[in-house]
Design brief:
CATH class of the largest domain: Alpha Beta
Radius of gyration: 22 Å
Distance between the termini: 68 Å
Largest sheet: 7 strands, mixed
Strand content: 15-25%
CATH topology of the largest domain: Aspartate Aminotransferase, domain 2
CATH architecture of the largest domain: 3-Layer(aba) Sandwich
Number of domains: 2
Bound molecules: pyridoxal-5'-phosphate
CATH superfamily of the largest domain: Type I PLP-dependent aspartate aminotransferase-like (Major domain)
Shape: globular
Oligomer: single chain
Amino acid sequence: MARGPRRTETRIVHAGRDPKVDNGGVNPPVQRASTVLLDKAEDMFRPGVWTYGIHGTATHRALKAALCELEQAEHCHLVSSGLLACTVPIMALASPGKHILVCDNVYGPTRRFCDQTMKQWGCETEYFPPDIGADIATMIRPETCVVFLESPGSMTFEVSDTPAIAAAARAAGVATVFDNTWGAGHFHKPLDLGVDISVQATSKYPGGSADLLGGSIVTRDEDLSGRIKQVITNLGLSVSPDDAYLVLRGLRTMTTRMDRHDASGRHVAAWLADRPEVARVLHPALPGDAYHDLWKRDFSGAAGLFAFSLAPPADTKDVNAFLNALELFGLGFSWGGYESLAIPCDPQLKRTSTSPDFGGKLIRLSVGLEAPEDLIADLETGFAALAASLAGD
Ligand SMILES: Cc1ncc(COP(=O)(O)O)c(C=O)c1O
């Protein structure tokens, strides 16, 4: 049988492996380097010659190759956090006097970077509703330099019409950047939908173990890649080879883990949807979710991250009682690891172009790799504590 195009899970198991460099090992060694010794003086300024550790080692090159395979990208840049993966492309595209368009459901620190740092550098940021679709064209100005998307929003889970937004931006000559941390390159391929730059926090699903920070920036566009590289080089950004190694190691098993996160997440979300204490479940893979059709069109699966609202009159005190009763769900701000996590969302919701009603106080869950039945039992304990809190006990 002829070999057809290989699937993501196959490609990321084998990508970036070089037996010559790895000495036959299945995993690459962690190569640490600042100084690189060169054979001849003539080599020292020759383009393309590796001259210094800040430009990455063999470990970084292996990870970059695997991340390119994940999203069928041509160029990959590594940074030391997911937030830098979001902010570096914006820095690469913006200059004083430019205008930045960002979706209103964006990760809070990305919004803060635009509102503070980019403002300080003379750029205006405007926020657009996640549902804007092709109408983004009406907000694009001659000085617009980037359209930044996150879909689904990692707190409120709206799915945008990415192909329509990317097409409108491209028609106007404006680059698009997409925070793909939720889809992680496994369930979502924004570059295939017309997006120019796809970024993700490798701290989440690629790392998968809640023990590293990292970010990746991938593109098929050589010019954009060059601009991103320039920012990284000029700022002197670098990634520890140990963290690069851990991300690569995590990536090998990421698709299998994510399939389980997906199945368990949907199981828990469907159970929550039937609870009388729950006003709404925000999970685009649930049939009946407002964004289900868009999700079905553009995604091949769902991360284990979703939210639900507690029906009124539950207030902050009741949300805290629910969360404090949980044992398996840890109270932690991250997601994508093997352990389940929960956070209250409301203190972090910052919207300026839209003011959606989620039906009550919002709680976000990151469903880990525990048995979903055990997670449901844990949530039942939370609901008992919620009832007691509502009763004034
Ligand atoms: C959607 C999204 N993008 C980016 C980041 C930033 O990742 P990091 O924590 O590695 O800076 C996060 C972190 O929570 C996130 O949720």
